[in-house]
Design goal:
The protein contains eight helices and seven strands. The chain has 250 residues and is of the alpha/beta class. It has one domain: Rossmann fold (3-Layer(aba) Sandwich), CATH 3.40.50.
Length: 250
Amino acid sequence: MPHETDNAPRFRDKPVSFVRRSGRMSDAQERAWAELSPQYLIDVQRDAAATSILPGTTVSPAEVYGRPAPLIVEIGSGQGHAIVHAAAQAPGTDFLAVEVFRAGLARTMLDADRAGVRNLRLVEANAPEVLEHLLPEASVDELWIFFPDPWHKAKHTKRRLIAPAFPPLAARALRDGGLLRLATDWEDYARQMRDVLAGADTFEPVFGGAWADRFDGRVMTAFERKGLAKGRDIRDLVYRRRARPVGAAT
C-alpha cells in the first residue's frame, strides 16, 4: 500500500542551501555526540537523504521538552554560540537549533551541557523540511536566521535560503504575531531578504527605515566578527507573522 505522503514535496528535488562537509570531529566532539545526543538531539525519520525528514513526520514540542512553553528556533545555528547563550538567559523558553553540520551540533551540545542548559534541543536536518514537516503549524514564537550562507557567486545564488519559496514555510511554522529575525553581512543578500519578505503577504516589517536595529538578543559570533573585520556592515531585519484568516486551519 503506498505511503499516504508519497505525493508530498521532496525538497531534494530543489537546490539546498548548504553543501554538507564531512569534516572530522575532535575527540571531545565525538564524545559529546555519543554521550549527549540522547539528551539533546531529536531523532527524526529520514527520507531520501541523511539530512532529510520523512514527510508526515511531526514532533510535539510539549512532549519533546516536557512542558508547554514559548519556542524559539534558530536555523543554521553553527557552533551554537548564540542559541546556547540565549537558552541560558531564558530558562522559561524552549529553544531548537537546526543545523546540518555534525561537528557544530556536537560543539553545541558540549557547551550546553557545560552551561547546564536543559531547555535546548537540536535537530540535524535541512531547514525547509523542519519547517514543512517536523514542526507543527503555528508552534514557533520566533524564528532566527543569522548569517546564513550568502552564496555570493551569481551561479550559486539559487541556493540561498531566503528566496520566494521560504516565506510560506516560515509562515506555516510561526504562530500569529510570531517574529522572523534575520541578519547578514552581505548587502546584496540583505536586499534580497527584504525584497522577498516585502512580497510575502503573511509578514509585516517590524522596523522603520531601511533596516532594523541590531537584535540585542544576538551575541557576537565568529561570523559577525569576520564580517566586521572585512569592513562589511551588519544588517538586521525583523518581521511579524500576520494573523491567519478567521477559520484557517492551525
